Amino acid sequence: MAEPIVSLRGITKRFGDFVANEAVSLDLYPGEIHALLGENGAGKTTLMNVLTGLLRPDGGEIRFRGRPVRIDSPEVAYRLGIGMVHQHFKLIPPFTVAENVVLGAEPRRGLLFDRRAAREAVRALTEAYGLAVNPDARVGALSVGMQQRVEILKILYRGADVLIFDEPTAVLTPQEVREFLAILKRLAGQGKAIVFITHKLKEVLAVADRVTILRHGRVVDTLPAAGADEGLLAEKMIGRRVRLAPEKAPARPGPVVLELRAVRERRTGQDALAGVDLALRAGEIYGLAGVDGNGQRPLVEVLFGRRSAEGDVRLFGEPILGLPTKALLERGMALIPEDRHREGLVLAMSVAENAILTRYDRPPFVRRGILRPAAIRRAAAEIVERFDVRTPSLAVPVAALSGGNQQKLIIGREVARRPAVVVAFQPTRGLDIGAQAHVYRTLVALRDAGAAVLLISFELDEILALADRIGVLSGGRIVAELAPEAADEETIGLYMTGRGDVRHGDAGRGDSGGDAVRRGGAGRGEVGSGDDAGQEVAGHGGADRTDEEKAGDGR
Amino acid sequence: MRRGTRPSVAALFSASAADAGLAIVFGLIVGAGLMLLGGFDPLAAYRALAMKAFGSPYNAGETFRQATTLMLTGLSVALAYRAGLLSIAAPGQMALGALAAAAAGIGLPPVPVVQPVIGLLLGAAAGALWGALIGTLRAYRGVNEVIAAIMLNWVALYGVNLLIRFGLADPANRQRTRTVAETARIDAPWLSDLFAHARLSYGFFLAVALLGGYAFFLHRTRLGFELRAVGQNPVAAALAGMKDRRLVVAAMALAGGPAGLAGAIEVLGVYGYWTVSPTLPAAGFDGIAVALLGGAGALGTALAALLFAALSGGAAGMQFEVGVPPELARVVMAAILFFIAAQNLTRGLRERLGRVERRNARGEEAGR
């Protein structure tokens, strides 16, 4: 490594009294993948926003190729060759790949947009960097992984030598993650400097050359990734030892509490429910894995009366499909929603009011239509106390709380209703490790108290850490059910992408009674090793051994 | 699921007291600038305006009378806004409320107290029903409530005109209804005397009481809780089991009540009749401005109503004393609204930035 391409020297950034970055120094060398690791709020994004000109530092200096520079706008960063792929893509879906890539710096012929030149430029880039994308494809029709490539092409097109990725793997399947990491390596191999912001330790170890760990806005350490391990990195990141996966006794599943049979929607498409069969038992955590956009949201909406569907849903044996949300809540359904700001909280209302949002109309919170603030405050105080919600007071708007504390409030609120079924949809989205561990412990505690927990998550690690049984949702159906012992990322990943269930056709339908574990098997042989090939022909029926049975053989 | 509140509208109604004060000052400065351009003395004009609005007991009383109407129409808009809806239905609802009250004052047996109470209730009910109609269109047919209200305002106006012509018209003057019975009136003679026979009625107290009740309703009742929740986050409210569609209807109906009442008070407390009119009552539209300036709160709405009543009532004084055209008062009102809107919109931006910063800060604390 010769001289660093970018050198941050003592960067300090304050927001009011709060110091987001304090004297942070960081060198980036051409050809290196530099992981930037830290919890939410540790200052990673702030630092990169300083580097890309979105924020101006209060102190410190940025050197680019040895020369001090002032990056006071994103345009300056672009000109220097610093580009960022944001967590949320900034693409225009109806435009083609080529159009999106050149947007803002379009090749022209006279006054006109030179479409051919744009296409050629993009094709040349895809070849040079091995990023297979069709320049003429409409971006809206591409998978998330492909869209990410378009984002990468965008900054490469502008001649970036420093590429910053903000949590790039959060939205990808395990297979896509692997492809993405390969792309990173290729880019680094061509001399690009890569900053990889993440909190996933495994990926850091897999791909990074060096790791810088931030905590409370300060650099804890910068070290080579080789020789580091997850435990070490986690400890540096949090400052203490944390066991993320909770201690968890084997589940003692009770009777089936919630049962779905052939639940489908009229509409079609990847995200439409196409016949979901599921039997959820008391005292178990059922992990529903799958790639975003394969029916997770419709499923939750159907379960909570916000979307109509055909088929049969039973709670304690009684049909509940089509009941209004209130009736479902009263019968013991509880939701920890995916998007707490949009679905879980009324941000402008107080902590206390949000603490009773799902039972505001029951005694003792209301009497003859009049709210009783004392009772509301008491209940809220109890939740705040029991779930360690850090809030300055019960009267402040819930918007004033951190994400982790908001989530604790939601979970506390739902637990306080003593639910029979808890649907937890991406319950740790955007939470730091400490808060994540808290959520995990609570879910396991709910299970041990006899609740049926449906954990819907796009994070396989989360499913693997918590679930007593795993289902894979793809194309609006549960295409496989596995015991956690039989499940590994590889297998689940194949089912998730839909490649695992090409052959199923009607396997999910037909025999929907009884225990739900029956599908799977076929897909694995198809893409995986040849041993299972015989099962491919089976479709469904006698030869259709389940993965759970296979796992049983191994025990 | 229902569409959410338009964020720009949400930002519009979030005026704080400081914002409002600043906007008023700027508005007056703009008015003064225009007067200087026209060769008038702004200080003298504003002094004349203030004198006309508050300078004598009678003038003050008349300002309070106008404020009564604006408080009610402002309350109407504010209430709908709290439920995430932009109501511009107040003009039509005023006309309907006025007609209903006139009908009660003309047609019902002349029993003191009972007759005016029924008249007021009918007026409020007429406004509420009209609101419920708009709410139903919005909730169950997806019709934007602004569009529905714009069109239904005219339906209400011409419907009222039609009913005056065919049924309630004064034989001597077919352009207006017969005069309501003396027993139907809600005059407050003692109050009127206090203000040198200004046309002040018990309607003023009704408006003040309703604004007081409004604050309680919003924060201490179940329905108020539901309306606020739905207004601020319809998705979360629905997932919490609230009947979001029904709440939209309820909110529009509740908002229609005060607007209808405003019309009823004009008939039973001021004029004693209602006229065929080619235009919608301006006080209905002014309710939007009042709620906007008042930040959709109870006290703010009351004060804003008073200010706008003073500006429009005082305009005549400005013309008489200094020769400034009375339209200039409307220009000042418009400028005030402009500054409120501008402040709120930029404040929305500022807050968004601030939120990001604060979130960074808090994430940090949580990690500690």
UniProtKB/TrEMBL annotation, chain B:
<feature type="transmembrane region" description="Helical">
    <location>
        <begin position="64"/>
        <end position="81"/>
    </location>
</feature>
<feature type="transmembrane region" description="Helical">
    <location>
        <begin position="146"/>
        <end position="168"/>
    </location>
</feature>
<feature type="transmembrane region" description="Helical">
    <location>
        <begin position="200"/>
        <end position="218"/>
    </location>
</feature>
<dbReference type="GO" id="GO:0022857">
    <property type="term" value="F:transmembrane transporter activity"/>
</dbReference>
<feature type="transmembrane region" description="Helical">
    <location>
        <begin position="12"/>
        <end position="37"/>
    </location>
</feature>
<feature type="transmembrane region" description="Helical">
    <location>
        <begin position="247"/>
        <end position="276"/>
    </location>
</feature>
<dbReference type="GO" id="GO:0005886">
    <property type="term" value="C:plasma membrane"/>
</dbReference>
<dbReference type="InterPro" id="IPR001851">
    <property type="entry name" value="ABC_transp_permease"/>
</dbReference>
<feature type="transmembrane region" description="Helical">
    <location>
        <begin position="288"/>
        <end position="316"/>
    </location>
</feature>
<feature type="transmembrane region" description="Helical">
    <location>
        <begin position="114"/>
        <end position="134"/>
    </location>
</feature>
<keyword id="KW-0472">Membrane</keyword>
<keyword id="KW-0812">Transmembrane</keyword>
<dbReference type="Pfam" id="PF02653">
    <property type="entry name" value="BPD_transp_2"/>
</dbReference>
<keyword id="KW-1003">Cell membrane</keyword>
<feature type="transmembrane region" description="Helical">
    <location>
        <begin position="88"/>
        <end position="108"/>
    </location>
</feature>
<keyword id="KW-1133">Transmembrane helix</keyword>
<protein>
    <submittedName>
        <fullName>Unspecified monosaccharide ABC transport system, permease component</fullName>
    </submittedName>
</protein>
